[in-house]
């Protein structure tokens, strides 16, 4: 089933109201907060364990009302229902989009759509849970030491080889859940085809205790397959050097059987690589790469943190899926956050969006969101092939606070651009350290360092919202010539997201939150957020250029003059 033509949002009454409001818009958060003591309370929402304060955004009741009208006109709720029901809303690939099915609980009571959930002839729930059970059983064997390498030693390091969605999700979640990793186990992640990556990640490893997971949906991605071959060579060479295997095909394939497993939808290609399909974990073409972290693609993390934590992680996603499905748009956190992004992008000229985690364990979250948001919504045509009628997508970027404060926050506070920013923090740190001596000044002996960290989190959104006027600067005794440089305009929009702790469930909730923000925006813009044709041309050209870089003069001659000259110079420089 294909989708109906997208609604042109610009022709909806809500959009036209917003155009009227945006014309000459002069936000004044100080005045808005002064006039409305309930503002924070009214604009703070709960979604599962997440408390989300939208009050420091540049919105009024009129703006939010009009945004919700746009969401209704574009059919956000109806399209979400179509997505979770298995309709082929990935139109250009004619596929269902069912990442939400990856976290439907095994206990099927009350599920929507109800169990058995059959899509395109497959019982989706059965397939998902059979694969999960296989991953759990395998992870248990690694964690308990029952699965050993070729010399009988237990596995200590798992190296995930993948790229894009087959890397960014697992590495982000592994880093986020470090406090939950079983002692004695470590995961590493190889993605770049730059040989430095696989070299550095394997240099200090013991081949006898290392397991490689080749994670590739298609099992055809150049980077991943090349790195997998390099890793296999490394394994054979190192095991031979240690006298653990001899130089026979049998010994080599025995080593692969114990030290390589795969995650893929293409089990035939897995077998061709030499990995026993028994040691492969499947998934399905209805899971997009950037939506796949909660599929078998997360096997490295399941090994590291164990099945119970993984089940909580999945439950976190499901809680937000249910919030998205059942909460009226007026209180629906992913919908509201998606609508705010539309407001900033299409009416206030924002080009980028910062994500600033105030928890070190989320340090890879902005990188993860870059693929999720930009590969999904960086599109110029709508799902019916017509040109988009609005700007789409935002440049997502960020770094953990407080590091960012000492780097790029200057531009967010005083630059000429509007940069909406999401501040994410948790109340209970994994490591509640105290500063024993303090600094003899503001920081008292025994100070709770997480409280100090959180003071920064609260201070930043306050400064961005309310700024500092020229009179306030003068009142500090600043000389007049420097006053303008020290003024903060305020009215810089932020969203504060606060969770009790960075548990597996909360990590799942955060990911699902952003998945559905992306969905909301994509629906309003009328785009297929689930294809990624924009990555194809570069892949094709890399293969076409490779012979030229390798010295084939006819291939070199066929290039445009700039590419030819650059390759020629590279060949001159290459020793
Ligand atoms: O870069 C494009 C892309 O197809 C991503 O969408 C995907 O996550 C990544 O490549 C990796 O693909 P695969 O898992 O098939 O190796």
UniProtKB/TrEMBL annotation:
GO terms for biological process: gluconeogenesis; glucose 6-phosphate metabolic process; glycolytic process. GO terms for molecular function: carbohydrate derivative binding; glucose-6-phosphate isomerase activity; monosaccharide binding. It holds the Pfam family PGI. The keyword Isomerase applies. Its EC number is 5.3.1.9. One of its GO terms (cellular component) is cytosol. It is found in: Cytoplasm. InterPro entries: G6P_Isomerase, G6P_Isomerase_C, Phosphoglucose_isomerase_CS, SIS_dom_sf, SIS_PGI_1, SIS_PGI_2. Pathway: Carbohydrate degradation; glycolysis; D-glyceraldehyde 3-phosphate and glycerone phosphate from D-glucose: step 2/4; Carbohydrate biosynthesis; gluconeogenesis. It comes from the Bacteria. Keywords: Cytoplasm, Gluconeogenesis, Glycolysis, Isomerase. Gene3D superfamilies: 1.10.1390.10, Glucose-6-phosphate isomerase like protein, domain 1. The active site is at residues 375, 406, 539. HAMAP family: G6P_isomerase (MF_00473). PANTHER family: GLUCOSE-6-PHOSPHATE ISOMERASE. Catalyzes the reversible isomerization of glucose-6-phosphate to fructose-6-phosphate. NCBIfam families: PRK00179.1 (NF001211). Belongs to the GPI family. This is Glucose-6-phosphate isomerase. The gene is pgi.
């Amino acid at each position: 089933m294909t989708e109906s033509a997208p609604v042109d949002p610009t022709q909806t009454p809500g959009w036209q109201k917003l155009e009227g409001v945006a014309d000459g818009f002069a936000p004044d958060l100080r005045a808005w907060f002064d006039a409305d003591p309930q503002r924070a309370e009214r604009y703070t929402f709960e979604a599962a364990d997440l408390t989300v304060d939208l009050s420091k955004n540049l919105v009024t009741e009129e703006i939010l009302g009009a945004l919700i009208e746009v969401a209704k006109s574009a059919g956000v709720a109806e399209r979400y229902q179509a997505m979770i029901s298995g309709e082929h809303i990935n139109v250009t690939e004619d596929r269902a989009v069912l990442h939400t099915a990856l976290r439907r609980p095994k206990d099927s009571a009350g599920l929507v759509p109800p169990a058995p959930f059959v899509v395109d002839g497959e019982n989706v729930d059965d397939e998902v849970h059979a694969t999960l059970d296989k991953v759990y059983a395998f992870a248990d064997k690694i964690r308990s030491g029952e699965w050993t390498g070729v010399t009988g030693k237990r596995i200590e390091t798992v190296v995930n080889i993948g790229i894009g969605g087959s890397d960014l999700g697992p590495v982000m979640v592994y880093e986020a859940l470090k406090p939950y990793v079983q002692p004695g186990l470590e995961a590493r992640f190889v993605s770049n085809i730059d040989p430095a990556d696989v070299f550095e990640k394997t240099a200090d490893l013991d081949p006898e205790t290392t397991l490689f997971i080749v994670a590739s949906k298609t099992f055809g991605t150049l980077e991943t397959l090349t790195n997998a071959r390099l890793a296999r060579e490394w394994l054979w060479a190192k095991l031979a050097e240690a006298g653990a295997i001899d130089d026979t095909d049998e010994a080599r394939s025995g080593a692969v059987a114990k030290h390589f497993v795969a995650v893929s939808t293409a089990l035939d290609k897995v077998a061709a690589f030499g990995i026993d399909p028994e040691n492969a974990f499947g998934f399905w073409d209805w899971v997009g790469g950037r939506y796949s972290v909660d599929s078998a693609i997360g096997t490295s993390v399941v090994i590291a943190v164990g099945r119970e934590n993984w089940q909580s992680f999945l439950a976190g996603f499901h809680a937000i899926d249910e919030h998205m499905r059942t909460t009226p748009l007026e209180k629906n956190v992913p919908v509201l956050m998606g609508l705010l992004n539309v407001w900033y992008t299409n009416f206030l000229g924002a080009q980028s969006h910062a994500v600033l985690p105030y928890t070190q364990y989320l340090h890879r979250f902005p990188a993860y969101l870059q693929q999720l948001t930009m590969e999904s919504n960086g599109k110029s045509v709508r799902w019916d092939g017509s040109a988009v009628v609005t700007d789409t997508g935002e440049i997502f970027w960020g770094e953990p606070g407080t590091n960012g404060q000492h780097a790029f926050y200057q531009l967010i506070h005083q630059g000429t651009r509007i940069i909406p920013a999401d501040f994410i923090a948790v109340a209970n740190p994994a490591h509640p350290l105290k500063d024993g001596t303090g600094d003899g000044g503001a920081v008292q002996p025994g100070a709770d360092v997480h409280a100090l960290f959180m003071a920064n989190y609260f201070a930043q959104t306050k400064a961005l919202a309310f700024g500092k006027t020229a009179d306030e600067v003068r009142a500090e005794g600043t000389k007049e010539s420097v006053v303008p440089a020290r003024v903060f305009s305020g009215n810089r929009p932020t969203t504060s997201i606060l969770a009790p702790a960075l548990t597996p469930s909360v990590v799942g909730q955060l990911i699902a939150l952003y998945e559905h923000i992306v969905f909301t925006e994509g629906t309003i813009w009328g785009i297929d957020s689930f294809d990624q044709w924009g990555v194809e041309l570069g892949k094709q050209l890399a293969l076409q250029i490779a012979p030229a870089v390798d010295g084939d003069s006819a291939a070199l001659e066929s290039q445009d003059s700039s590419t030819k000259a650059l390759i020629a110079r590279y060949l001159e420089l290459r020793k």
